[in-house]
Structures are given as structure tokens and as C-alpha cells.
Amino acid sequence: MAVRATVSRFPVDADALESSGLPWGATVTPFAPADERGAVPLYGSGGHLLPRCDNCWAYLSTLCELERWGWSCALCGSFNGLDSATLDRYARPHDCPELSSSFIDLEIPVEGSGEAEIQARPVYVAAVDLSSSEEFLELVKSSLLAALEALVPGSLFGLVTFSHKVGLYDVQGPIAVVKNVFIPPDSEGRLPVDLEDVMPLLSFLAPVETCKDRIAAALETLKPTTSWERTTAAGQGLDGVLLGGRGFGVAMTALIDYLSSEYGSTFALARVFVFLSGPPDYGAGQLDTGRYGEQYASKREDADRALLPEQTPFYKDLAAIAVQAGVCVDIFAVTDEYTDLASLKYLSIESGGSLFLYANMDDSTLPQDMYRMLSRSYAFGCILRLRTSSEFKLGYSYGHFFPDPQYENVQHIICCDPFATYAYDFEFANSSGFSRHTEPPVLQVAFQYSIIVPREDTGISESNSSTSSKFCLKRRLRIRTLQYGSASNINELYDSVDPEAMLSILVHKVILATFKEGVREGRMLLHDWLLQPIPRLIFALLRNPLLRLHEEGIHPDYRIYLQCLFSALEPTPLQRAIYPLLSSYATPDQQAYPRHSLSRAALVTSGSPIFLLDAFTNIIVYYSPTADSSIPFPPPHDCLLRATINKLKQERNITPKLTFIRGGQDDATAFEKYLIEEQNIDGSDLSSIMGFVSFLEEISRGVLEYLK
To answer: Which PANTHER family match (predicted)?
Structure first.
């Protein structure tokens, strides 16, 4: 669990916070295996026995004052008694993690399990769009073959296709069998028959370890539906115009209902991977993509504000149904046409999944991303709660979760991997703030979660090896309690700034502002938040496609993808995505400089022949036009530069695209577009600013004007 505050020394009161102009908050990565310094939690059991404050419900920690018969809460100061059983346990302090560490992870009983282990198998379903092309299906096939290699033995896998019909595959027999159900064309329609009546769910879900070859064989049979099939099903419009053929909404509604019957018995969480090649255009949930082509300027409308909101609540409502059914949906959109991800994103992010966009099939990293995602551990059924000492409180919360309908500041997370990050604003609870007479500010993060683990060998006969007894459900409680200092003056406050954490909070604020008020308002907000420690990051964020205007050629689906990606990233990789890291090498085995500014001047003055640019989703190796011809291109696989690249790729939650460019011979546009410090900032609605230096001069003039 990594926790990074925007400032390590908190402002002393509201006036100090206001005068500083700093965002005050923290980012939390709850399922990270270690904290931000690399320390791991102290593991143990008996989390349900952990004492809690009778007043604020905080957990006992090493920051609490422990007395003979009770303890004082580190957050609210209340005194709490200890019962005899707890006193007996605390007589052996080395057996109690909460007395030894402020970062603990304890097992707790699974609700309703009694003495028996809850059994649950990992369930994965691939939903493949057949209203597509051969190239699309070839990419999906290779991705699913990679996914099969990453699945643990004992997992169950199902294959479903959708177009103008839904196809279910039974691969447990000697020959794969597919059964199809046609989708009604009306926008309110459902399938005429339940999928359970078409194929029993346990025939659809096949054990991976015994059916892998037959699953692979079934994937080879996938073919795109012909335009004649789709037209016949959807009906012809005037002049033979195709009216539809991708019944995604109906297919997903039926699939989620289908899986729900085994929720809580066969599985505790089913993960559905959707491979989509275009917008839903048939049956319930179809989307009108015509709004992308409208001439908003002629109507005096803001195109960004018009295209950012969802056009229908269908997929948001479907996500709520998926949550109740124990289904998490990941969407992999492989398309360069407008698909209205603004509407579709809710099905993924609100069911605990992720949204991926691949605009180019030729260099898509989809197979690698699938393998990485399934190779990572994940938690599900999570509850995240932050508590603060009495002088301050939580403000706005950001991230892919949904708030508890009853309890304040409690967030539910359907599925959480080690990279998933959430952000919080802080504000003062009263005017006194952190006076010299109060205790230092304290933050406690509690994260309750479930994991599926292989069941320990109990001598059960191998005849039961294909049953759900291979896995069991474990529930755990992870708690971290942190104490901060307060800054005695403005200089101490500025010196304690964590620029990466601050950028993360700013990105969340900007995304929220663009969603509510439009991209122009988001850019205005960034200028309002300009502060000395991070002007370069602010400048880079203004240049990022997240805040570029519609008339600058930014595709709305790409903007939605960036919103979903950036709002879940940890602070360090988020900074890479906003302001890439440029380093240089004298040879493939010798680094020259670890960091350069993103400008052509840096390339010239360094004199280095090789540059490595890390932009998180892209890694570029650029050879200067003046590089000696004896330097091997591309760099050898056994050199330091390659080792650095491989390390960067392993640390990512998505696979970065790797590109090698020889300056003076290859097209260097892909590299030069990241040299943002020499680019204009257009469309800010504030001023026309040339490059980073002029940007700083403009800000300086604004500050002087403000101080007059």
C-alpha cells in the first residue's frame, strides 16, 4: 500500500493553505505489495480481533498510546478499554503485528463461511466482436492464446461471440460446438431465449488445463460475419445502406445474466474480456455516432463539451447489474473510428475493469497487455476507507470506485490490481488547524479485500481435481497508519512538495473540470493552479492530448481513453505519461546523462549520439544524425540500453510500444513530437505562448500583475 501526500509537511491552517496555492491531498495505491519506500506489510491473522476506537472507529496502531487496561486513539484521542481476551493476546506482543508495525495485513473470516473454506474458481470469458475484419480477429486470436498461457491451472474459460447474433462455444467435447441466438433489432429488445436454455453454463465454462487445445482450435474457427448476413438481419435502408450488425448491448446484458447464476458458488468474480472493433449499432444499447461529424463550430457549440458526456445511461446501468452479478468487464477497443467510449467506458470502469484503446492493429500491444494483465495478482470485493485525525478531513475523492450508499468516505472497488491508484483532497475541519498544542496530523488507510488462492493439499483424491476445491477464497484487512508534520512557514511547505503526487491530484481535478465544464475550463483551472515547484509539468499537461481542443484534431475516444488511463495511474508513471523522461547514452553500454529537458537544444548541447525517451505508453530510441556509424543500430540485445528498456517494460501495467529511429534517415516525427518545450500552447483562451521559456515569462508577468 503506497501512500503519497502532495506535501510531507502539512499546512498549519486554512490561511496557510490558501496563501500557498498548493493542492493538498494524497494518492493511495492500496493493493501495491509494498509502500512508497519499498517496505512490505507485517502479515498475520485475527484481523477481526483488532481493537477499534469506540468514537471514530479507527483501528489500534503503533501510533496509539497503549496503557495497562486500554489505549488512546491516535486519530481522535478517545480512550478505549481492552477486554480480557485482547489483554491476554497483548501479553505476547511479538504475536500481534499491530503492536510491531504501522503497516499490517491480517486475514479475517470470510462472511458467512463458518468453519468451511469458501471455494471459488477463477472464471474468464472472452466476448469477441464478429462484425469486424480478418485482421482484427487474427489480433484477438493471438491475444487470447497469450491469455491462455497466463491463466492458472483450474481456471474456467468461456468463449462467446456477438454481431447480429450471440454465439456460445462448448469446447468440452471432442469437437467444438457453437450455438447461436439471433438478436432482435428493436432498441428495447432482449434475446428471445435465456442463454442458460441454449447451453448450460457449466458446459460453456471449460477447465483450461484439460481444454486448452480445444479452446485454441475453437479460436481458429472465428470468422467475421459477412455484410450480407448483417444486412439480412438488420434490414436494408434506402439505397442498400447497412443499418446495423453489432448488437453489443443485448449480448452483454444476456451474458451478465447468464453468468450470474453461478455467482457465489462456482466463482466469486468472473472477468469478461470484450474485444470491440467499432460502435454498437444494433439492438438495445446502440449508439449514435453521427454526433462526431456534426459541425459544432457553426452552431456555436463547444465540441469537447458535446462529445465528453455519455449519450445514454444504458452502459452505466449495465455496469451496476454486472456488479451485482459478480462480473468485471475489461474493454479492448481496436478501432480508429469513432466508437463513443464516453458512453461505453462506464461498463468497464464501474464494474472494476479497464478500458484499452488500440487505434492501429499493425503495432498493437494487445497480446502483451493481455498476458501482463492476467499474470498480475488482483483483489476483488474491496472496501477502501480513509480516516483522519480530528483537525482535518477528506474532501473530494477520485478514482474508479463507487461510494457506499450508507457510510461517508467508504469506497467499494470491484477489482483492484497492484497499480490501481485513488486520490483524495484534504481540507481543514475547523479554523484552528494544527496548532502547537495539538498532536501531529494522522492518516489511517484501511483496505479490506478478497483474493483467490490455491487450496492447500489436504489429501483429497485426485478425482476431485477438476472441481472448485482447487481454490478457496481468502479475506484480508490491510491497514496503514501515517503521521505527518506541519510546516511552520511557507518555505517549509514548499520544500516538502512531492511534484509527482501533486501532478496526480491536478490531473484528477482537470479531468473532473473538463467533464463538467469542458476542455477550455480545464485549461483555465490549470493556469489557476500554477505554482513554482511544477511549472514544467503544468506546461506539459497543457500540451497533452488530454487538454488539447477538438479543433486541434484530438479524437474524442482517445481523450476518453487517456482519462481512464491517467485517473488510475500511480504518481510516478503518470508523470512519465505527462512529461516523458529523456536520457542519453555515449554508447549502448554507457549512459551519458540521466535526464534532459524536452527540447532540441538539449539534443545539440549534450553531444550524445543516442537518446532514450520514456513516455510511458511509448519508448523511443533515437540515434542522432551525427552518431558515429560504428555504433550498432539498433542497440544489441545484451547491452545496458536494452536492459534498461526491458526493466521499464516489466514495470508497466501496459506494454509500451518500442520504436527505433535513426536521425537523418528515418522519419523522426514520432520522437520530435515529444520535444514539447519548443512547441506552442494554442487554444488556451488566455494567450498565445511560444515555448516553455515564454510560458514562464508569461506566468511571471501574471504574478507581478497579481501582486500590484
So the answer is: PROTEIN TRANSPORT PROTEIN SEC24, SEC24-RELATED PROTEIN
Q: What was the pLDDT predicted at 684?
A: 42
Cα distance between residue 671 and residue 655, in whole Å = 18
- Comparing CA positions, the residue from 637, 640, 671 lying closest to residue 657 is 671
Q: pLDDT digit string (tens) for 396-454?
A: 999 888 888 888 889 999 899 999 999 999 999 888 888 766 689 999 999 999 998 87
Q: How does pLDDT run across 206-215, given as a tens digit for each residue?
A: 999 889 999 9
CA-nearest of 333, 330, 364, 373 to 139 is 364
C-alpha cell of residue 101 = 508495525
227 phi, psi to nearest 5 deg: -60, -30
- Would you call the peptide bond into 11 cis, given omega within 30 degrees of 0 as the criterion? no
**Residue 126, beta-bridge partner list:** 159, 273
Q: How far apart are CA 162 and CA 286, in angstroms?
A: 13
pTM for the predicted model, two decimal places: 0.84
What would the grid cell of residue 505 be?
A: 491530484
Q: Which tens digits make up the pLDDT trace of 571-587?
A: 999 999 999 999 999 99
Q: 242 with 230: CB under 8 angstroms?
A: yes
Cα angle 243-127-312, degrees, rounded to a multiple of 5:
50
CA dist 653 and 634 (Å) reads 25
Cβ atoms of 25 and 388 within 8 Å: the answer is no
Find the length of the chain: 708
